[in-house]
């Protein structure tokens, strides 16, 4: 049993109403369950991690559209940890999902919901991974997918996925915020189901990252979860899910939700630092981490609440710090992530140096997408392969043997 509820005015709407914000006040919506009816204990949650393990807290009744998402690995980053004086710093590598990013958690739920609601097509605006994931799940469900991308600003691997899985890909001469505005209007006008993170059902899927983190640590809640933040759906979703587990008595506290943004695209960080109630949108966001190149995050109000109420914080990192962290993860830990994902680890390093994060904290950085998503940035950062003749002599020569 669940319904939709406006976080601003409290208005309630039936679960099958096709709305994305409150028709009365335009506030963001939450999926609210009748928690007294959910009987879920730690004992019910034995077995391997996966999104659908937590079905009791997901808004889908029948068989979901699934590619076995979730169950992503958690790694102790021992070598980076040693450098910054931490023993208990971890990465949860969401790049290991079916399409290579955490967006799959939202899309398995969102596309299942689209079918349940009888919708005939789905759409999104995207910095890349949302489109890749929607393309994959739309293909799996057998429904048409339309994606709007900001021209020239989407990493190659993500465009390749959207195209290959059969979506209609439209590249607009504008940024992500323009694309989202357009797709929202289009979806309402043509009755297409919108699967951006303004859709509260999509966020329900993403909250399973938080479930898996506490489940992995045998319900011992880590001190802090660090995330790269763009549209701010993910940090919001994880916070909501963990609150639900606390309500059900499965966990006893909430980690400090910590948001990292790129310096050129940091409206959430600015609002946290100034204590403002809402963000001031950034008209021209810029960063090498294209997945978080968003100036007007739709879930800002929810995210500010998540950060503040959990006692977390928000910090910026530069593009150089992001790329350095990406390389550190790759070289020192064997973990390949895309630039936006590395922002979480760049943030960990910075906040540790600033003394905000203590040496004995248990921290989990969510690395949101896979290295192969953005091969062009990687190639620019690394030396070219050594080209030699096909002889042993030539190899000996370049090796200096
Ligand atoms: C979507 C995405 C983000 C940002 O997530 P939000 O929910 O928009 O804050 C970060 N990293 C990657 C790789 C993403 O694909
Ligand atoms: Zn409202």
TrEMBL record:
Enzyme Commission code: 4.2.3.1
Reaction(s) this enzyme catalyzes, per UniProt: O-phospho-L-homoserine + H2O = L-threonine + phosphate
The keyword Cytoplasm is annotated on this UniProt entry: no
Broad EC category: lyase
Gene Ontology biological-process annotations: isoleucine biosynthetic process; L-serine catabolic process; L-threonine catabolic process; threonine biosynthetic process
Pathway this chain belongs to: Amino-acid biosynthesis; L-threonine biosynthesis; L-threonine from L-aspartate: step 5/5
Domain of life from the UniProt record: Archaea
Annotated Tryptophan synthase beta chain-like PALP domain residues: 65-369
Pfam name, any one: PALP
Gene3D superfamilies hit by this protein: 3.40.50.1100
Binding-site list for pyridoxal 5'-phosphate: 129, 230-234, 368
Keywords: Amino-acid biosynthesis, Lyase, Pyridoxal phosphate, Threonine biosynthesis
Modified residues annotated as N6-(pyridoxal phosphate)lysine in this record: 103
InterPro entries in alphabetical order: Ser/Thr_Dehydratase, Ser/Thr_deHydtase_PyrdxlP-BS, Thr_synthase-like, Thr_Synthase_bac/arc, TrpB-like_PALP, TrpB-like_PALP_sf
Cofactor: pyridoxal 5'-phosphate
A single GO molecular function term of this UniProt record: pyridoxal phosphate binding
Family: Belongs to the threonine synthase family.
Function, in words: Catalyzes the gamma-elimination of phosphate from L-phosphohomoserine and the beta-addition of water to produce L-threonine.
Protein name per the record: Threonine synthase
């Amino acid at each position: 049993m669940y319904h939709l509820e406006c976080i601003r005015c409290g208005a309630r709407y039936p679960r099958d109403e096709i709305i994305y914000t409150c028709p009365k006040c335009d506030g963001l919506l939450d999926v609210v369950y009748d928690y007294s009816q959910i009987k879920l204990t730690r004992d019910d949650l034995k077995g391997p991690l996966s999104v659908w393990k937590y079905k009791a807290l997901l808004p889908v009744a029948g068989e979901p559209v699934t590619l076995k998402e979730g169950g992503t690995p958690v790694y102790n980053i021992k070598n980076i940890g040693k450098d910054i004086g931490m023993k208990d710093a971890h990465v949860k590598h969401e790049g290991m999902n079916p399409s290579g990013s955490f967006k799959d958690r939202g899309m398995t739920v969102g596309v299942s919901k689209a079918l349940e609601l009888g919708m005939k097509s789905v759409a999104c605006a995207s910095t890349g991974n949302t489109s890749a994931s929607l393309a994959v799940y739309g293909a799996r469900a057998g429904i048409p997918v339309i994606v709007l991308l900001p021209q020239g600003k989407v990493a190659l691997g993500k465009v390749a996925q959207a195209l290959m899985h059969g979506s209609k890909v439209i590249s607009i001469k504008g940024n992500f915020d323009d694309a989202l505005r357009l797709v929202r209007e289009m979806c309402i006008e043509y009755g297409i189901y919108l699967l951006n993170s303004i859709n509260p059902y999509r966020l329900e899927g993403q909250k399973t990252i938080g479930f898996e983190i506490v489940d992995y640590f045998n319900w011992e809640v880590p001190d802090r979860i660090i995330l790269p933040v763009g549209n701010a759906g993910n940090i919001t979703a994880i916070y909501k899910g963990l609150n639900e587990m606390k309500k059900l008595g499965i966990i006893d506290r909430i980690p400090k939700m910590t948001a990292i943004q790129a310096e050129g695209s940091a409206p959430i960080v600015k609002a946290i630092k100034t204590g403002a109630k809402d963000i001031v949108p950034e008209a021209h966001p810029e960063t090498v981490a294209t997945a978080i190149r968003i100036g007007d995050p739709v879930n800002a109000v929810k995210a500010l609440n998540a950060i503040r109420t959990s006692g977390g914080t928000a910090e910026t990192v530069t593009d150089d710090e992001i790329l350095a962290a990406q390389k550190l993860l790759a070289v020192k830990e064997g973990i390949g992530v895309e630039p936006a994902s590395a922002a979480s680890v760049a943030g960990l390093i910075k906040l540790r140096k600033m003394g905000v994060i203590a040496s004995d904290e248990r921290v989990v950085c969510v690395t949101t997408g896979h290295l192969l998503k953005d091969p062009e940035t990687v190639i620019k950062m690394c030396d070219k392969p050594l080209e030699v003749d096909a002889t042993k002599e030539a190899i000996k020569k370049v090796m200096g043997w």
